[in-house]
Amino acid sequence: MSLDAKTAARPVSTLAPASLAALVLVVAEYLVGMYVNLFVTIPRADHGHSVGSAIANGPAILATHAVTGLLLGLAALGVLVQAIMARHPGAIAASAVGLFALAFASAAGASFTSSGHPADSMAMSVLTGVGLLCYAANLYLLPRPGRRV
Fold it and tell me: Does 79 have pLDDT greater than 80?
């Protein structure tokens, strides 16, 4: 069974900008997260509460960090969907690992907000670094503009 070249795969032209946007969001989230970790005290009343509570009641920079993280989750999911639609195996793998790393970084961040354990903070930063590498790998793996797949 033969597939027409036009229907075989969606062009990867939108995948590179989406990966770059996710990469920029990861860097922004990392920087804001480092600031929160070093300079913001989470009020005791917010310990053990949800992300919504942190957004509504927490310090403004913590709310910014949480909202950016939610946007990053949507961006990571969008990059994975685009990689699947483009049928690019390397980008699919990197995007899936990036999404899972950011999801687990988010879980570690929620745990850190509740407990304040340094191990949770370390897990959050390492997993964020893994996500960063995944979206950078996407940019490396994807064909350059003007080059045919």
Answer: yes
